[in-house]
Amino acid sequence: MHSPSRTLRIEPAQSWQGLNVAELWRYRELLYFFVWRDIKVRYKQTVLGALWAIIQPVAATALFTVFFGRLGGLSKQVNGSYALFVYVGLSLWTFYANAVTMAANSLVGSSHLIAKVYFPRLLIPIASIFSGLVDFAVAFAFLLVLMIVYHVPPSPQILTLPFFVLGTMTVAAGAGVLFSALIVSYRDFRYVFTFVVQLWLFATPVLYTIDIIPAKWRLLYALNPMVGMIAGFRAAVLGGPFPLDLVLVSAVASVLLLAAGLRYFTAVERRFADVI
């Protein structure tokens, strides 16, 4: 006699239950595949390849140096080269903006997989963030060259750089996961998200020093999680006063953003295959 067959039904959690770390670990090889796929797609049929990781922040630096540095007078607030000051901020910001943008649109771009095969959907936006590390590594290598050109020696604070890269990835994961889930259900958020990222740049001390913000408002300003990441990253690279209070506030804000993004993502994940 044949034993009765059993059907195993696999579906995402219906509400926030925390991350299933064990399941994510079981699918780690799929994460590697997604990361490698994103990297290959980014450089497929490109002539300059990884050089675009340098061209983008360099072109933006030149533009901002002319309009904000010289014409806008922001260069007077910076000790040393304003171009180097801006490039340091843009190197990390460009990594963040590209990572969060790719993560936000990643689920819609992988709709053919989501509708056919089960796997932890969280792997898709997370892979988009990790794949952006390649471009950041190239841009950072060029930053080291600029430090030599401008005779800026590394300070002991440079050892804290991994913290700010990890913090930026946390912010990108929180925003990217949240918007990726929103875009699946509400496609209008693709346009809202583009506008949000553009405004976010000017709400972050990429083009200006933190000193222009009144002291009494700085901790509130640091609730923008990228404020502490950019300010701390710049202090680690160029030296100078380390904004520990801003970094701590932004670190807490980044964790809260990630928790909010994961909560919403896991709450609506079960509907992805139906609406995508």
Give a quick precis of the structure.
The protein is an all-alpha fold. It has helices at residues 21-26, 28-43, 52-71, 82-109, 111-114, 123-149, 161-185, 189-202, 218-221, 225-238, 244-268, 272-275. Helix 6 runs antiparallel to helix 7.
Produce the secondary structure layout:
Blueprint: H1 21-26, H2 28-43, H3 52-71, H4 82-109, H5 111-114, H6 123-149, H7 161-185, H8 189-202, H9 218-221, H10 225-238, H11 244-268, H12 272-275
Helix pairs in contact: 2-6, 3-4, 3-6, 4-6, 4-7, 4-8, 4-10, 6-7, 7-10, 7-11, 10-11
Structural overview:
The chain has 276 residues and is an all-alpha fold. It has one domain. It is built from 12 helices and no strands. Helix 3 packs across helix 4. The radius of gyration is 21 Å and the shape is globular.
Radius of gyration over all CA atoms, rounded: 21 Å
Mean pLDDT: 86
Tally of contiguous helical segments: 12
How many domain regions?
Answer: 1
Largest sheet: none
Distance between the termini: 43 Å
Catalogue the unreliable spans: 12-16
From the helix content, strand content and strand pairing, which structural class follows? mainly alpha
The share of residues in extended strands comes to: under 5%
Element string (H = helix, E = strand): HHHHHHHHHHHH
Instruction: Name the quaternary structure.
Output: single chain
Helix content: 55-70%
What is the β-strand count? 0
From the spread of the alpha carbons, the general shape counts as globular
